[in-house]
Amino acid sequence: MATHHGHPHHPAAPAAPASPPPPQWQPLNWSFPFAPVSGNEADPQTWLSSLANSDGGFYPLGSNGMYHGGIHFDAGTGGKLKQGDGVRAIADGEVVAYRLDSTYPELTYPTTPPRYALYSTGFVLIRHRLVLPPEPDKQGTSSTAATAASGASATTASSPQAYQPPADEVLEFYSLYMHQLDWKGYQDARTGGGNASASSIHSLPFWQGDKHFRVGGKANDRQAQLRQLDPTLNFGSPSGLLNEATLAGGTLSGPAPDSMDTLSTYPDKVRYTVPPASPADASQNAGTPQTGVHICDHANGTVIGLLPRGGELSVVGNVAKGWALIATITKGIPVAAIAGGTPDPRAATGWVNLDELDAVIDPKPLDAVVVLDKPFPVKAGDVVGYLGEYQDPTEASMLPPKREHPLLHVEVFAGAQIKNFIGKSQERAKKLPDKPLLLIQQGAKLVKPADPQSNDGLKGLTLALATGKQGDPGKGLWAKVQPTKLAAQPSTHGRGHNHNHPASGTPVGDPLWVERTKYAGKVASGPVPTWAAFPLQLANAEGPAVGYQQVFPRAQLDEGREIDRATDDQGTQWWSITAGDDEGRTITRWVCEKNHPDTLWESPWAWPGFDTVDTTSIPLLDMYRRNLFEAKRLIEGDDEKEFSTVAATVNAGQFIGKLEKAAKRQGDGKGNVVPADLRNALTVRWLAEAVSHVIFRYESEWGGDMGKWEKFLPLMGELGKPTWTTEMERIKKLQWWDKVKAVKDFPADPDVWHMHPIGLLGNFFQNSTESCDCAAPFKKISKIILRHEGGYVNRSDDKGGPTNHGIAWSTWQKYAEEDVGVAPTLDNLKKLMEQQAEAIYLKRYWQPKGYCGFKDERVALMSYDWSITSGGAALQIQKLLNQKYHSNLVEDGGMGKQTVNAINAIPDQEALLQDIASIRRRYYTNLTIKDPGQIGNLKGWLNRVNDCLQVQV
Fold first, then answer.
1. Helices 654-663 and 640-651, interaxial angle, to 10°?
2. Residues 89, 421: contact at Cβ < 8 Å?
3. In 10 A of CB 420, how many CB atoms?
4. Do 517 and 554 fall within a single domain?
5. pLDDT at position 196, please?
6. Which domain holds residue 347?
7. Which position among 7, 295, 893, 951 has the lowest Cβ density within 10 Å, counted as fewest Cβ atoms?
8. Of 530, 560, 583, which closes a domain?
9. Same domain (yes/no): 525, 561
10. In this predicted structure, what is the pLDDT of residue 19?
């Protein structure tokens, strides 16, 4: 029985059944199709500008001038995006259908000599549900409460019920990932053939067919290392405490003393080694622990063995995720949990975590549309395929075609209900409090910074950061400083947040504003550009007016460059943005977060900037003829007058009119926009946004009668007709719409509404993170942090000075009045209550430093708790992410958006947690080696690590 302080812990009496919590609406999670190689991951323009490098397939017109409802990722975009890792589901949803080519079909063009082209018909179709948030006064009330399922009584009373929205508050939409890798490509990747990388291409879990699992690169478990405790080691001496191998290898890992056959799960126990069966075994195995997947005696139980990498197994039942029971090990032999130990025979039929294994499926059927009997759930960011091959007629070859034209088409569409849904959504947005999108309206004027004064009276003075209620905001391009006669202060290493003693000095004159990185905190050596008042004032909003409406997610603005952000001494935020005037010229000036004329904060549910247009009345043939005329590609025999009339009619329509204004800097009203204009528009932020916000309806090329394509034959000329006839074979083979009609509620008619995938993501992506309750995950771990920090201390060996609940003296002076509402005195610091400390932690450290965005709360706890004790925690984690997980981060020591995203992208969060714990222990050990004065803190630091590992968040 577990005991605490010598007293048994008796089981509590069963609690009375609690009422189930009211059903809660949950926002949809979103993900961009590919991670960028570089750039702001919160900015849709990162992806829109990448699409400008595509060889074709622009939205909403293809290179042939016809309707095109998707976007293309190919070799041109590959330099900007991490396409080799696979395409990711853009939102939570469920796979409803797919097709996998056995090998790419081959077209034969009847030229002399014949030419050949490969293309992929493979696709994955995902259904998503976008649900309106309930009205604020209705959320959780009986009017929106879910009806309990028939089996609800069998579940725990505290299980939350699913939120059941009214039918007209749900938009079912679909994302399509077309022209995917064929089965041969997967096989080549597995064997190392072709150009595919075996480490990045894996079977997809929703494929039908015989399934087994391989121990691959995701499996990072290791056998425990045999270690003998040194009987001569004196644990009371500093040398004993500083023996890192003992701390990390003997004390913190290894076999448990109470069993030779199991591996303890309690890292705080001292573990002893078990001698191997023979000296020969020890020499061969003891020093070389193998890597693979742990095998446990039950789900998440005691480790009884390990199947090394390269092994393969099948499991009992149709399990795809989580823990599963081994049915058969088909390749490889399990080894003992401890290197050099005797294998446990139970491991052959033990339990493994499938999330650490690669699913290997012999997919059946191939070359056919598969409609899943039970849709397969996927999360935003899950890999759902890889780029396939697509060669157009100009890329056809007289030789056997090679795989050298990678392509993936991503498309988003919805049925007829979308217009009503958007209308209701816009009405609901008026009642919602969360408005994370900054809307810059047409006609707005931005602010230019005031000119500084050259101040030559500051030489020799320290430009110390101003303190007090209206002191320096602590961030932004400009800093508020107090010129001070101040002696240089020695640097210190603190144990808590910003631990250092308050500086003293003699203020000289009034506070001033200076450029932060150039002058703040430094001694002026000559004239300094200064401002008596904050450089940005709404009274200075003048100059050219904004000509294009623009929308900026707040997260995108906050993740921008430091030189593009500013905060005044009232805490008001400003951002430098780029806009366009009526003539399409660039304006780069500042916008204020509040009270800025012709700007407002808006909800994503208002769909700001989006516009719908129905094009089904314009025949596809007319779109093609219009493009031939506008692109001046008429051939002999074409009736120019007829083509001109068709072009004029199409250009006068609403669709081309909207595109002209969006893509051609308002245009001249002639409607002569062509696909090349769409490519150019993608490189200009305000133009790209306008294009990506057009929602239009047309008949999908994946369905419909082939008769509309046969009408093109007369336009092809005698030489082109055979090629077009061959091309129609491809069009027919690519179609899948009629085969997917069996999917419940799938649109029967291929006349559907298309949305730009990046435009849609850019609108809602930030909302999925901005709308989260940052306090909720913090409250789960705050008690642990406070327990670690303890109460009031003022030890002579603690360089941080007076500290209570981890809040150091300097932090208390800075935030006591604003965050807690009390004077920043030492007496009040001694009286600091836990709730007050939590308020400072949440507002000043947890939320602004990104920990709210962690998807795994234990990883967040481990990282945050480390950051409290050490300022170098984030840098060490970044190094780990780069060296082991190849995250390609800038090692700047900040827990920014890119670092948080890299952490969340690690599939095995448990392995990451253990990795962070390991480097954290090593960091503390090395710290005490460098500074023996810290030896008294080492035991407590290591206990914190163990506590973070064991706690159930």
1. 80
2. no
3. 11
4. no
5. 45
6. 221-363
7. 7
8. 530
9. no
10. 54
Summary count for the chain: helices (H), strands (E)? 27, 38
**Distance in angstroms (rounded) separating the CA atoms of residues 644 and 641:** 5
Q: Quick one: 878 and 842 in the same domain?
A: yes
Of 611, 666, 677, nearest in space to 52 by CA: 677
Indicate if 443 and 458 belong to the same structural domain.
Answer: no
Q: How many domains does the chain have?
A: 4
Strand 573-580: give its sheet, edge to edge: 565-567, 573-580, 586-592
Q: Where are the alpha helices (DSSP H) in 652-684?
A: 654-663, 675-681
Closest CA to 382 of 903, 911, 905: 905
Query: Do the Cβ atoms of 293 and 356 come closer than 8 Å?
Result: yes
For residue 728, the cross-strand partners are: none
**Cα–Cα distance measured from residue 283 to residue 587, given in angstroms and rounded to the nearest whole number:** 71
442 and 590: one domain?
Answer: yes
Angstrom distances, CA of residue 609 to CA of 596, 768, 828:
19, 19, 51
User: Per-block average pLDDT, block size 10, for the chain (953 residues)?
Assistant: 34 45 80 87 88 94 94 96 94 98 97 96 99 77 33 36 87 99 93 60 91 89 67 34 32 29 29 33 56 93 94 91 93 93 95 91 95 94 96 93 96 97 97 92 97 94 88 91 74 45 74 94 94 97 92 84 90 94 90 96 96 95 94 85 93 90 67 86 92 96 96 91 96 98 94 98 69 65 78 74 85 82 86 84 78 86 86 90 86 82 86 93 88 84 88 72
> Is 650 inside any structural domain?
no
What is the residue whose two structure tokens read 């290791």? 222
The model's pTM is 0.72
pLDDT value of residue 897:
76
Sign of CA dihedral 322, 326, 327, 331: positive
Report DSSP letters for 856-899, one per residue: -HHHHHHHHHHHHH-TTHHHHHHHHHHHHH-------S---HHH
Predicted local confidence at residue 724, as pLDDT: 96
193: in domain: no
Q: Which domain-ending residue is among 338, 363, 388? A: 363
What local confidence, expressed as pLDDT, does residue 483 receive?
95
The verdict on residue 36 lying in a domain is no
Phi, psi of 218, rounded to the nearest 5 degrees: -75, -20
Query: Is the C-alpha dihedral spanning 640, 645, 647, 648 positive or negative?
Result: positive
Say if residue 462 is in the same domain as residue 335.
no
Do residues 919 and 777 share a domain? yes
Do both 791 and 932 map to the same domain?
A: yes
Q: Is residue 820 part of a domain?
A: yes
